[in-house]
Amino acid sequence: MSNTYTIRTMTRDEVDLAIEWAAQEGWNPGLEDAHCYYQADPQGFLIGLLNDEPIAVISAVKYASAFGFIGFYIVKPDYRGQGFGLKIWQAAVARLAGCNIGLDGVVEQQENYKKSGFSLAYSNRRYQGSSHKLAIQSTLELTELDALPFSTIAQFLEPFFPVQRTGFWHAWLTQSNAKSVGVLDDGELQGVGIIRQCREGYKIGPLFAQNTQQAEAIIGALSSQVADDCAIFLDVPACHSAAVELAQKLDMTPVFDTARMYTQEVPEIGIDKTFGVTSFEIG
Length: 283
Known about the structure:
Layout: E1 5-9, H1 12-24, H2 33-40, E2 45-50, E3 53-64, E4 67-75, H3 84-95, E5 100-106, H4 110-115, E6 119-130, H5 131-134, E7 141-144, H6 150-157, H7 166-173, E8 178-185, E9 188-197, E10 202-208, H8 212-223, E11 231-237, H9 241-249, E12 253-262, E13 274-276
Parallel strand pairs: 4-5, 10-11
Antiparallel strand pairs: 1-2, 2-3, 3-4, 5-12, 6-11, 6-12, 7-8, 8-9, 9-10, 10-13
Helix pairs in contact: 1-2, 2-7
């Protein structure tokens, strides 16, 4: 019997499969990631089927005509090294033709990504801490984000991503297994943080703030809203020294690095105010 390998857009239910495979790879997805990611681009998830059996997945989320992001690049272990991954990778890149494409890849694959036209921008580093150590009280003025108009939050978030992604942010902010907090200064929103439940513990992301004091206050407020002694993960741009120093100060342990790469210029996305990355999977 001849093998037939087809690549097509995932259904919404198949995005759950990609999340499950990501969990098996140790990527620790959030409980509602599939729903939120799908809002970013319902056409942006591809699946490879060999004789109708799912064996490969990838996301190629197109945010606008000028920017896209690749993630969820997974081939089932029994089918690796046989060219199936390369074909679905090529389909993802083709879907984003003409875009500046970003990705967070495993460091060991940097050279392969370079062959596809990607250049290293910086590394992101995942840190792990414990909620009871991180739940530090602050004197800063904090508020739950659901007390603010969505338009206010969206306007604050705009400089931290190359293009608008309103549908995604709305889903991200309204997750049932998440909490969010903002820092106010004379009524003006100065910082934002979201913590969501994952397969293991919780992840904080994004975490955007004007300075270390604000970032630490947000981490403390979010960590105090989950059970004692829970694992808390924070993905930090390794090029942002103040963010790295804060993670170290809070006794967080580095878990692994990713390589943030782009096919064109490195976008201006407020890295100097990014203390926690939103997502390795869709940017």
